Amino acid sequence: MICNCSSENNSCLDIVPIFSNLNEEEQIKVSMITDSRQYKKDEIIYNMGESNNSLYVIHKGNVKISRITEDGKEQVIRILNPGDFLGELSIFSKELTLDTAQAISDVTICQIQGEKLKGLMLEYPSISIKIVGELSNRLKDAETTIERIGVQTVDKRIAEKLLELSKERNIIQLDRTKGILASELGITQETLSRKLSQFQKDEWISMKGHRTIVINKREKLEEIN
After folding, report:
1. Residues 165, 214: contact at Cβ < 8 Å?
2. Quick check: 87 and 37 in contact, CB under 8 A?
3. Torsion angle (degrees, nearest 10) of CA 198, 165, 141, 56
4. Under a CB-based contact definition with an 8 Å cutoff, are residues 76 and 161 in contact?
5. CA–CA dist 209, 88 (Å, integer)
6. Roughly what angle, to the nearest 10 degrees, separates helices 189-201 and 154-166?
7. Most C-beta atoms within 10 A of its C-beta, which of 87, 97, 123, 179?
8. Under a CB-based contact definition with an 8 Å cutoff, are residues 137 and 182 in contact?
9. What is the mean pLDDT of residues 203-216?
10. CA 100 to CA 46: how far, in whole Å?
11. 190 class by beta-carbon count within 10 Å (0-12 exposed, 13-18 middle, 19+ buried)
12. Is 216 a residue whose pLDDT tops 50?
């Protein structure tokens, strides 16, 4: 569903780091090339192999970016949250999209017209610099994921992910299913469940329901090799 609503667009742009330094006039220019779109949980935003020329900025909700491996399994690349953006590679390349974007909750997205955005990037270099910076961060994250899957033990991968999700707190409220989390780690959901059960048996963590994990012994997770 599309809503061409300037107040909604401005609200969306306000929370996006790549537009945070724009003044009011500059944000109005961006909002004029932006449409607000709503997606229901599990709805596809775009599919792998499609031709796309838009930048999507998440205002509310969470989006899963994934690819299908050669053996037909889904590999989750990343989970995006409010303020994150997607679709940027298709703006700078004529290639078809390499991944699929799917809402994992009800989502509101600001869709920005790609060609017109490129014009604004020439006019306001600060936007270009922030997009390049974000792409650099994503490359770093991708390299970290590759290292985890190729070098680290399964226990180490899970422990590091739990510590990352905890953000130095002791309670994790998962914003994704365990199936998605397992795919991010390059393991099966069964393996993840078995390892979490072992961590709980060792009293390193406690699990409450399907989405709450309490870290009891952070030092034990940090010591895993």
Report:
1. no
2. no
3. 130
4. no
5. 36
6. 80
7. 87
8. no
9. 92
10. 6
11. exposed
12. yes
Pure H helices in 72-124:
88-92, 114-123
> Angle, nearest 10°, between helix axes 189-201 and 178-185?
100
**Entry pTM:** 0.71
Residues with Cβ within 8 Å of 143's Cβ and at least 6 positions away in sequence, in order, are none
Helices (H), 93-188: 114-123, 125-151, 154-166, 178-185
- Cβ neighbours for 13, distance < 8 A, ≥ 6 positions apart: 19, 22, 27, 30, 31, 34, 57, 110
Q: Position 102: which residue type? A: Q
Q: Is the dihedral of CA 104, 55, 184, 129 positive or negative?
A: negative
Residue 139 CA, chain-centre distance (Å), reads 13
Range scoring the smallest mean pLDDT among 52-56, 138-142, 160-164 = 138-142
